What we know:
The complex is a heterodimer of chains A (about 290) and B (about 270). Chain A has 12 helices and 10 strands. In chain A, helix 5 (about 115-130) crosses helix 6 (about 145-155) and helix 6 (about 145-155) runs parallel beside helix 7. Chain A has helices spanning about 45-55, 80-85, 100-105, 105-110, 115-130, 145-155, 175-190, 205, 225-230, 235-240, 245-255, 265-285, and strands spanning about 5-15, 20-30, 35-40, 60-65, 70, 85-90, 165, 195-200, 210-215, 220-225. Chain A is α/β, with parallel strands linked by helices and about 290 residues long. The relative contact order of chain A is 0.14. The radius of gyration of chain A is 21 Å and the shape is globular. Chain B is mainly alpha-helical and about 270 residues long. Chain B folds into 2 domains: about 1-130 and about 240-265, no CATH class; about 155-225, no CATH class. Chain B contains 11 helices and no strands. Chain B has helices spanning about 15-20, 20-40, 40-60, 65-70, 75-85, 105-130, 135-145, 155-185, 195-200, 205-225, 245-265. In chain B, helix 2 runs parallel beside helix 11 (about 245-265), helix 3 runs parallel beside helix 6 and helix 8 (about 155-185) crosses helix 10 (about 205-225). The relative contact order of chain B is 0.15. Chains A and B meet through helix 2, helix 4, helix 5 and helix 6 of A and helix 8 and helix 10 of B.
Amino acid sequence: MNNIIDVENLTFSYNPEEHSAVVLDGIDLQIEKNSFVAILGHNGSGKSTLAKHFNGILLPTGGKVYACGFDTCDNDKLLEIRRNMGMVFQNPDNQIIASVVDEDVAFALENLGVEHNEMVKRVDEALEIVGMTEYKHHAPHRLSGGQKQRVAIAGIIAMKPSCLILDEPTAMLDPQGRKEIMSTIKRLKTEQGVTIVLITHYMDEAVQADRVVVMDDGKILLDGTPEYVFQNVGLLHSVALDVPQAAELMYKLREYDIKVPISVLHEAECVDVLSKLLEGKIDNHH
Amino acid sequence: MIKDITLGQFFPGDSVIHKMDPRMKIILTVVFVAIIFVVKNFLGFAVAAIFLASAVLISKIPVRTVLKGIKPLLFIIIFTAFFNVFYGTGVKVFPDISWLSWLTYGGLERAVFMVIRIVLLIIGTSLMTYTTSPVMLSDAIERLLSPLKHLKVPVHELSMMMTIAMRFIPTLIDETEKITNAQKARGADFETGNIIRRAKALIPILIPLIVSAFRRAEELADAMECRCYNGGDGRTRYKIYNFSLRDYIASIIMLAVLAIVIVINIFF
Lengths: 286, 268
């Protein structure tokens, strides 16, 4: 089994009896092990609702969700699913339970009944991975937003999950905090082999993923590599999403019939293309 | 600032008393309260007071802070003293003045006795909260009450509630400040007017605060479920408390004080 998450024709609405609005409408999605997938969408597109299906916080109204091969509707496997599918939310303040950092990181382990020596070891490891060891005995409310969010991530990775789902983890952070979180996430993927599902509305974060899934109105609109997805500038604009600035610039240039490659996402690439373009122009004048 | 309020008046330190096992501190505080109620005469109080004074000195909590703890309860102390004066019997203090005829030496003695008792109780119990962090206190209470689980008392749930409440107090204080500033920026006036006006002015602070607290509760519940929270069954503990030598020595001293007080009660 190569897919850690397998969503089959998922529909969801909060009150199916009362025919309330359908939040998710026929989603099919497979996420491979050890991949880094970004799910993009504007507010109300259903991206957070979808994420909550990955570990059984919400259960499908129709269709099936398999996480690590287990049906999320299977109550006996729920703890196993949640241990494997770690989830980090937007507001770090509302996920930290204890008044001391290390005790909070231990919370999940206490719930899972991990034996004491093992627990102490795992708490230290988790804090080490997110680089918060020196704050072990601090009170969470004295930390910065980025530090709090890293504590929240440590609390999840202490469970040794095989997949980490992050629901807009940087939305409430300053640029410094966002950088800290993104580098932590990437390190988790490369060093610990954790599958990453990042729900975001920041384009520069989505660009760093291996695969981007764009959602709109409860459906999947686009799905593919960042290079492929961000070529569809017009389509993304039509659902109120931006594209990375480099892609936007290329798109504008192409509107003026200037032949630039279509899949430029990063600043460095963009500079490269522009300098080549300018050199070409200078050559033409000679 | 509201932020400066210390919950449970904990004073961090590294004295022997700070380092004691919180469970032992609670038990010994209960024993101390019992001693205070066992005492029948002033000599007994003298022993208890000497013991308490040395404990305060060992804890390195400033004596002024300890005495300040009495202040909020001053009214109750005076009230108790006042009524105990009436219950006295014996020789009248002013036999010649008719409107002071109720004042007896027995009554005065009784009043002083009650005042000493209350003061010792306050200092004794606040010494525990001064030297133990609220987190450790709630943890210790859970562990001490855990036998009650067999009587279907939801000990774990109560302690989880206390832990979360303490964790969210600073967060909610921050939020109150933010909302207050936001309302001030919109022209709200919290400083003028009579008490009813001022109470009404608090409504625009309380409602957003309560709404947000509910939203937080919902998110926290999700986050707890994501971390496999499943109630108290089968949980292990990260923090392990062990009684050490200092805890045993402290309890021996406390028992000695109890014995001395009982002896004094019998022979004096």
